[in-house]
Amino acid sequence: MKTAKLLFSMSALVGLAIATAPAEAQQAAATPGSPGATTTIDGRYLPNPPQPFKGDVQVNAAQSTPYWPGLVVPPKGAPNVLLIMTDDVGFSAPSTFGGVIPTPALDRIAADGLRYTRFHTTALCSPTRAALLTGRNHHSVSTGVVVDQATGYPGYDSVVKRDTVAIGEILKQNGYDTSWFGKDHNTPQWVTSQAGPFTDWPTGPIKGFEYYYGFLGDDTSQWQPNNLFRNTTPIEPYLENPGWNLTTAMADEAIARIRMLNELQPDRPFMIYYAPGGTHAPHHPTKEWVDRISAMHLFDEGWNKLRETIFANQKKLGVIPESAELTAWPEDLPQWDTLSDEAKKLYIRQADVYAAYLAYTDHEIGRVIQAVEDAGKLDNTLIIYISGDNGASPEGTRHGLYSEFSILNGIHPTVEQNMAFYDAWGTDQSYPHYAVPWAWAWDTPYQWTKEVASHFGGTRNGMAMSWPARIKDAGGIRHQFHHVIDIVPTILEAAGLPEPVMVNGVAQRPIEGVGMAYTWGDANAPGRRTTQYFEMFGSRAIYHDGWIASAPPILAPWALSLAPPPTDVMNDFKWELYNLNEDWTQATDVAAKMPDKLRDMEQLFVMQAEKYRVFPLDDRTLPRFMGVKPSYIEGRTAFEFTGELSNVPFPGVAGAPNVLNKSYTITAEVEIPEGGAEGMLVTDGGRFAGYGFYLLKGVPTFTWNLIQLERVKWQGKEALRPGKHTLEFDWKFDGPGLGKGGTGTLKVDGQVVDTRDMPKSLPVGIGWVETFNVGIDTGTPVDDEDYQVPFRFTGKINKLTMKLGPEELTPAEREMIFGSYRAKQ
């Protein structure tokens, strides 16, 4: 018995020696060691070492004393956190910052707390979100561009490393419940299938959220989100559920979690990261919202008049000073008065649908905020509502897009082509985006748009923050210069938690943001962010002590093309200089008057770029979507499937075969039961682009959907009889060359039943929202007139094989896409 006591005493001493939490950091809600005891931890080293056992162990329980480890909780008074980020919302789109689109939920947070007028993002979604969640610059966390465009350099490989863990993991290990709803555009493409691995997913050890409900990728259909997950499991709640919309469903999910936590663990603080798809394309509001906004006639006078209205509103609200200038309208965008009546009709429809989407998204956010209040937790909840992850999007190009996937493949629809989808705009029959001039208007009073890091039109976003228990200047306005990397240190300061120096055994790189809590009680407090660099696709800027040097792009972001940029990205971009103390909007370039100041600023940018891994600069856009990325299927040319498989994303990267720009053969060995069979054999894509190989009332059919502009179909002559059959579709590509045509041949049991040419194919991608499926179609149909999802195959697939030929590109295309990587192979 003495030996046992000695061993346990030594164990307790060892536990005390390695515990990192100092005594003053410990808090007990009950007697230490009792079942109801809680404790805070030091927080610098996560996870905290095991708590020492301070009881007494004898041979018999009757003579022993138990001692329970305390439940880890945040420091006393730590707030709940509701972190909201909308998508592609320009500074002046919402009413809160002078816009004409009603956003009462954002208005509410601004009225209850503070409105920040000089808050900045990175000019693009994945980079902003990586910076938001980690508190570090986007290149520092390997996200210099969106993950789809990742390249093999430290600042651009899209893999957030274990030495820069996100706020979800930090708060979780300090006792918070952490959940994430909505967009995740920060998981590398090659791990996004249901095969994982899941280290880099929202629920993995780097991002650290305990629960996830949302979609992986740039965006998704709000009507049929075929890339939707619950934790790491793909789900299809929209199937056979007409009228279902993700914008509402996501709010329902978040509200349900708030209620569940309040009923089961009412005293446990939570963090919710709420990141809806709104308002990234596709703009998919419900009809009720479109009707409501259309009846308001907000955009009938056009984009030029809209800018003037917003500019006046902003001065009345005080979100820009009276001295601010309205920047010039760009020469290469049309004035409203020069447009035809048909074009005006189209553009007004685009604006109405977009505005309805923003109002709808804000309304559902308001429901989530109301759920926090209904739970009695609003007073001690820090709500940070960031209106957009970059400026308004120019990706709709000059006339708007009936389908976002058209521009992915280098197609710029005309007004006439878009008008064919006028009545369907915003419904599940479209994947729409608005014309560029609306983006410029929704970035009033600034120049430029999303993707442009040099000017505030790309990087300045409205933000409101409330915490009734702590922020008392309700309705106040703050003009300190801040950046999205400043959110994590603000949350940590609010929660009373230190910046961790080690997480999960890995030493952490320092957080690069600065906390914003100093602004809460003092509107005139000197700003603590004195320097900040910006860079995206080569456009760049450097802010320092009230000055900003800016190098705008040579090619406008709406001039999307598969051609390589004809520029020297380091030397051809022309620098401009602005004194922000006198010029709030970057309206007056003083570079020619102050060459020495400009030179100093350029040198400062280079120093910051070296420090934060910005180099090498790269101004390619579309070609980088096609570049080489890590993949578990790299070099694989033969695929074999048996039975049903669904929801495999990103062909050529995440697990699905990529059939573009090459020859291929698909062979299906099937059994047809008595009475016949129909259904999908294999598909990738759907209503907006893609292919399907299926039996239509028993007849073998292969369909290519070319961005809804054309459907090419190969079809047998009769339905298959009961028994075993071998079906084959063989495509001979007319390459080399992106998007070249070819000849397709359909065979049944070795006999040709149809053959025809297809003059062109898709050059870049089928699209990220639809997935690869065998034996079922879980997204949308490639041809609505042939079938509706899920169109499960009613026979038996014994084996389906796909054999791919080599990628056939011209030498110029290969160099454009792969650059020196391929040249060295």
UniProtKB/TrEMBL annotation:
Residues 1-25 form the signal peptide. GO terms for molecular function: arylsulfatase activity; metal ion binding. Residues 79-496 form the Sulfatase N-terminal domain. InterPro entries: Alkaline_phosphatase_core_sf, Sulfatase, Sulfatase_CS, Sulfatase_N. It comes from the Bacteria. Residues 27-49 are annotated as: Disordered. Keywords: Calcium, Hydrolase, Metal-binding, Signal. Transmembrane segments: none annotated. Residues 27-40 have a biased composition (Low complexity). The keyword Calcium applies. It is an enzyme of class 3 (hydrolase). Pfam families: Sulfatase. PANTHER family: ARYLSULFATASE FAMILY MEMBER (PTHR42693), BLL2667 PROTEIN (PTHR42693:SF43). Belongs to the sulfatase family. This is Arylsulfatase. It comes from Chelatococcus caeni.
